[in-house]
Design goal:
The protein is an alpha+beta fold. The protein contains ten helices and six strands.
Amino acid sequence: MFELIRPGTQIDFAGKRHIFVGLSVFFLLAAIVLFFTKGLNYGIDFTGGAEVQVRAPQGWDIGKVRDEVGKQDLKGLKVVQLGEAGSSEFLVKSQGSENELNLVSQKVGQALEAASAPGQYEIMRVDVVGPAAGSTLRKSGFLSMFYALIGILVYVALRFDIRYAPGAVLALAHDTLITIGIFVVTQKQFDLLTLAALLALIGYSNNDTIIVFDRVRETLQANPKLTIEKAVNQATNETLGRTILTSVTTFFSAAALWVFGGPVIHDFAFTFMVGIIVGSYSSIFVASAFVIYFTHYQQKRAGKNPAGPRKRQITIRPEPKFTA
């Protein structure tokens, strides 16, 4: 049977936890600073804009469409080819105020009409998202990620123990924030498709973390006298091969979508590729580290008060005796 990690491998993950948590904190702070200073490159889903699906004349490529439409001075112009490489259908995206958005399809039509003969092009569909609606979608999108993390916090606390829940949620927040930070650095467009990839990533990364937590719990149940550090090391080493193989195969699947899936799914696949790398790192080095921290915290509290909450002493005085 093929085994990527030999049985009996003992890598001291718990002993290096301070180093890896320190690195994660550094990258998290960098991502937060970049988010509030440089900011994300929001797509029209979140800022408001117009999408015009057109059928261009035969022989036009994406560069030709971009050059001709670009003569109309459309703000935030982006052209995406739909279908296969030789397809003549394109999606033209533009940002602007609500009044300007209503003129986008007219300007696209004028650009195609000026560079081709009548009947050689067709405007197939026009979608307009106002700035107010885009702002609402942006708020709802970030709230959906927050609610997902709260739901996972409750799920892990009920399935395992309160010690495990904060580590799982912090690891997922770590994955999400660092992935968003990479989008800020690369200035790739952040739209609803990217948000969907982040939500899918939260579910994927949580599954990976649950596998490790489940093995930690089994190890502690089988060896109650084992320290939490040794239990985490044993569990992480035993699941390391599974984690690597799962992550690598999923990464190759996302990479295939990124290379061959076309521009429409390009950002979704890129988000998942980045998230798989960050999520695998957090499942191994971050989530289990916080289980150790919270276990030590509980043990310290129990050590300070081993008898449980102090009971108030109540003294009942005897009833007075009266003599005649």
